[in-house]
Amino acid sequence: MKLVVQEFLTLDGVSQGPGSPDEDVSDGFTRGGWFVPHLDEEFDRIAGAWLGEADAFLFGRRTYQNFARDWPEMTDHPNARILNGLPKYVASDSLTEAAWNPTTILSGDVPARVAELKRRPGRELQIHGSARLAQSLLAAGLVDTLRLAVAPVVVGRGRRLFPDGGAPAGLRLVEHRTTPGGLSVHTYEATGATPEFGTYGAGA
């Protein structure tokens, strides 16, 4: 399977708490819900098409617990059958049970476990949110594709998908579109652990 990371970001790179003010208040974050005002039918269509490519999902503990709380109750949502029915994996050393079936807990050497999952047949193993997990797997060179939906807002603080001191990565833009609500949606393929660098000069 191909490992695909899907993240909602602000213009200043924050990925924390896109869905509601109380979604993730860790570290005193009080500016959640910044993505919601920009949702529209076009992005719903895009997100639905992405879900249609999934054969399994991979979550960090916090995102998994939020999804496991909400999605079993959202049976009328058009994406509920996919999210509730497909295999799910949660990376955690603290969870001992996971009731949102079918779920498997990945503990210990998570990158090695994910590498093993990637060798299985299938289309996409998708990470939704779970920025810390995405960071660690990007650093391990396991991410194949990044799908970033960027909202036209600067929140000024919060946990970022690409923090200072994070691992470098080479990427190639393969698709870009905008939505009527102002979202800028980018799809990148990973090209290697080292970005290309150059020097600008006359005649360049």
Write the layout of secondary structure elements.
Layout: E1 2-9, H1 41-51, E2 54-60, H2 61-70, H3 80-85, E3 88-91, E4 103-106, H4 110-118, E5 124-128, H5 131-139, E6 145-150, E7 170-178, E8 184-192
Parallel strand pairs: 1-5, 1-6, 2-3, 2-5, 3-4
Antiparallel strand pairs: 6-8, 7-8
Task: Characterise the protein shown here.
The model has no long low-confidence stretch (mean pLDDT 94). The protein has one domain: Dihydrofolate Reductase, subunit A (3-Layer(aba) Sandwich). The chain has 5 helices and 8 strands. It has an 8-stranded mixed beta sheet. By secondary structure, the protein is of the alpha/beta class. The radius of gyration is 17 Å and the shape is globular. A hairpin with a 5-residue loop joins strand 7 and strand 8.
Please state roughly what percent of the residues sit in beta strands, choosing from under 5%, 5-15%, 15-25%, 25-35%, 35-45% or over 45%.
25-35%
What is the H/E string?
Answer: EHEHHEEHEHEEE
Q: Helix count, per DSSP? A: 5
Q: Examine the coordinates and then state which fold CATH places here, giving the name of the CATH topology.
A: Dihydrofolate Reductase, subunit A
User: What kind of oligomer do you see?
Assistant: single chain
Strand order of the largest sheet: 4-3-2-5-1-6-8-7
Morphology: globular
User: Which stretches of 5+ consecutive residues score pLDDT under 50?
Assistant: none
